Amino acid sequence: MLGMRPEGSRSQVRLFVTYAAISFVPVLVLGVVLVLSLRAEAQKRGLAEGRSEAALIADTAVEPLLAPGSVDRSITPSIRAGLQKLSDNAILGQDLLRLRVRDQSGRVVFSDDGSGFGVKPEDEALEAAHGAMVARLTHLNADDNDDGNAGVQSVEIYVPLTAGHPARQVGVLELYLPYAPINRDVTTGLHQLYLDLGIGLFVLYVILFLITASVSRGLRREVALNAFIAEHDPLTELPNRTLFRSRVKEAVWDASVDEQSVAVAFIDLDHFKDINDTLGHQNGDRLLTELANRLSAAMRDGDTVARLGGDEFGLILRDVVDAEQALRELRNVIEREVEVSELPLSVQASVGYVVAPQDGTDADTLMQRADVAMYVAKAQHVGVVRYDSALDHYDAANLTLVGELRQAIDAGELVLHYQPQTNIPGGRVIAVEALVRWQHPTHGLLPPDRFLPLAERTDLIDRLTTWVLRTAITEIRDLGPAAAGLTVSVNVSARSIGRPELAQEIIDTLHESDVAPEQLMIEVTETALLADPQRAAKVLARLADQGVRVSLDDFGRGQTSLGYLSALPIDELKIDKSFVMDVLEDPAHAAIVRSIIDLGHNLALNVVGEGVETEEILDYLRRSGCDIAQGYLLARPMPVANLREWLGRGEASEQVAA
Hints:
The chain folds into 3 domains: about 35-190, PAS domain (Beta-Lactamase); about 240-390, Reverse transcriptase/Diguanylate cyclase domain (Alpha-Beta Plaits); about 405-570 and about 605-615 and about 625-655, TIM Barrel. About 50% of the residues lie in helices and about 20% in strands. Strand 7 and strand 8 (about 310-320) form a beta hairpin. It is elongated.
């Protein structure tokens, strides 16, 4: 770095000299313009002085010699003698170079040196013959009709001559006055003025240069500050996402050249929103600043820590051997207790990471995959997760599918299939579960697990849930007597169950469709309840007040506390099919199934066994006291038209009763 300073200094000097020279140009141009303007003004004053002298000569010396008609074609000897004497004296005194008198037609009738006779009149003479005084700066003998070499610089003046009472124009007086005396008179002090002007312009240039240089320094500082702000987070002063991306590209390139590995990680603080909501955003900002300082202090030279937005940080670990171990140590740094506003706080973090070049070499791809891994770590509560393509649902094909799904809802490409549920003691069909399918124009009939997980990550799930609810309620109503007393179950996602307006939308749909609330069962998973327990509880309580029943789906896979379970308005537990399907082979699962059945009955809840595919499983559920069965043994999901026919045959009753 020291070796670069002289070159940088020379570069600054060159820039300074260039700027000084360029900025001097407009001042120099201004000076030239002013000098030319002053010179032109001096010439105007010189011509004006020449006119005054010519008018004085005409009034006091020439016109008194004339009488009306005395200049027509020729003049009398006495007038000629008077004019000759006048011109000789004036020329001798160097006050005059030439004197001519012309008649009204512009022809010369007197010339002190005998020149000008018999030549065509000049335009200026004709103009003066019509009453105008004409003056111009020229040289003696410079006209085309003059003989001899060009003489000194002079003022050529044509003055109308008048005589008689009343006065009338009788001819034209042509005078050549020496310009040198006039020029001395009008330019007296002009050189001093030029000098003063030059000094003034130079002082102005210096002042403007200093002002501009000062403003430029300020602008450069402002530009540097704006450049810093554009690439750094204003709160923590860490690099932002833009600079982080550039550094990822740089680190990946360096790693490829040096044949090393580089880790790119995303860190998200768990439950940071609770800190903001409880302690206020100001204390939340203090916490972020402290964590940023901690991470910066823990990083090696050459590594990068950035704030990507909100409570999300990004890390670049160059030449890393064990990325997971390094990130776990950094996670421990984050989780150390922090004191904010005299309150001890401890936060946890979810970390997702990739290692280049194994997980990719494109900066955007690496960042996207690290983000995916971070959300997996957050969802699974495992702390640190490396990217795995099996966990990535965000590929281009899925994004295209999400875009097409928006159109599919409006285009009528979605259909509902219904899977019956029967009560085990008697085999009577008491409910059907509505399962959405997508009749894709290219891919054919798509099952829900192909597009529902994608929809649940966007607000599209709300539109989809609304469509399923309306369609299921309408189709069950339209089954008529075949569906008398039949309940339809509709799955609601975690995102939708957290919307306060969902309960009113369901109630309005039931009212508009003239369907009793008791005919609708809302199915929610344990995961959905845990996403936002308070909001979910309010929505479910509102629905329960109106008579809508609630089923807790996939029970046994989540982490619902028993106290919370007893407080919710739940009517039914659905045992997750993973326990039911191998209940005969796995004693642990068999014990879980029996425990859930006992728990449900102790809470006065119906219990549904999903995944019933064999007679032996159905018999086990019957012996264990399960209330309701659902599975392929009884019926596969079917369109509503097939459901009407199936209900008419009563196949389920025979199957269960057997």
